[in-house]
Amino acid sequence: MFEFIYEYSELTQALIMFGAMVLMIILGLPIPFAVAIGTVIGYVFLDFPFVAIAQAMYTGVEPFPLLTVPLFVFAGSLMEQGGMARRIVGMATSLIGNITGSLGLVAVLGCTFFAALSGSGPATTAAIGAVMIPSMVKQRYDPAHGGAIAAAGGALGSLIPPSNLMIIYGIVAEQSIPRLFLAGFLPGVVASAALMLCTYLIARQRGYIGDGTTFSWERVYRAFLAGKWALLAPIIILGGIYSGIFTPTEAASVAVVYALIIGHFAYRELTFKKIVACLKVTAMISGAVLIIVGPAKAFGELMSLMSVPDMIGEALYGVTESPFVLLMIMSVILIITGMFLESIAQIILLTPLMLPIAVGLGIDPIVFGIIMVISCEVGFLTPPVGANLFVAARITNLGIDRISVAVIPFVFAYILILVIIAALPDLVTYLPDLVYGKLAG
């Protein structure tokens, strides 16, 4: 009964598949089901047996490293509930001192520190935003601006290792996850500095004064002493990975155990009730990840079988052969799609389409991965899907429209980072090449 559709060209078939998926999303169908419908249409076009869809979806959720995602989510939630987020804010506060826009700078720096624990943008926004947004409001910051700072700083949770998005990209692109973690470190530091500069300039313009607390080394010492266990966590987690003591999945398990021990025995803030709450949060976030992984993996494989990456590549090669321009074009595509797609779905769906094109022009897969992650971070900050915006809106009790406007300067800061990395890819590959070069030697 479907004979007539086989006459369509591969391009037309792919457009029909993608169009059907987009239409289902616009109509309000959950993304996993919309992707599954697009995949079914593709299987009809190619006359594949539908049982192959189940097999493709199974291989999507089969990789053992996927276990790393719920473990890091659980560890980050335990660290938030166990008092680490508050102590991280204390350390950041002691370092900033009494300067213009100090509370906003503390929020960004606190997000930078907590990002090295959580691996998640929304989780970092929730943990630091819950502490810092009320403080900023008390200092007469515009609540929308305070929410925007927390949302923008929280996006660092997906760039600074460990990062759930890097784990997903590493699985899909078959790249080394430890190498991706190292690659995200310097761009993460640059992005944090850019956000702090943006925060400072806005504070100067609006007259946001400091909190009155002067800088002193004694205060820094006390803050670091109080937060030493929180500061030790990323050293143990990342140090264990890079030294070869354990794999990223084992490191995530260590992070969970460490968070339980420190939160309950050292800080005495992690109760059984809080642990249950953390488990609920982990189940919701992990379930959302796993339910999209299978259909998205099947869809991506099908697009590759239909030679869609080759068709897109030919179109882009006709426009430019410059790696920089190509990365900029891809970044624009990723930012636009990130407005409508959840970040993990975006990576699983678009990596098989875009990565071969990037590699064809000599772009390192690790560099492309960091570009993709930063573009997804912009998606955290753009409506209608922007996850960080919704978290900040919930904390501030404001509409997402107000925070969406306030976050625009920070979106431009992230776009500047994309331009810098596309122009200077060595910023991404320097640490991985340095460390793995030494290990190889």
Question: What labels describe this entry?
Answer:
441 residues, single chain, disordered N terminus, 78% helix, 23 helices, mainly alpha, globular
In short:
With 441 residues, this protein is mostly helical.
Shape: globular
Number of strands: 0
Mean pLDDT: 84
- Residue share in helices? over 70%
Q: What does this protein structure show overall?
A:
With 441 residues, the protein is an all-alpha fold. It is 78% helix and 0% strand. The protein is built from 23 helices and no strands. Helix 5 runs antiparallel to helix 12 (217-226), helix 16 (308-319) crosses helix 18 (343-360) and helix 18 (343-360) packs antiparallel against helix 19 (365-380). The termini are far apart.
Topology, pairings included?
Layout: H1 10-26, H2 31-46, H3 51-61, H4 68-81, H5 84-96, H6 102-118, H7 121-138, H8 143-154, H9 164-173, H10 177-183, H11 185-206, H12 217-226, H13 228-242, H14 248-266, H15 272-305, H16 308-319, H17 323-338, H18 343-360, H19 365-380, H20 387-396, H21 400-406, H22 408-423, H23 426-440
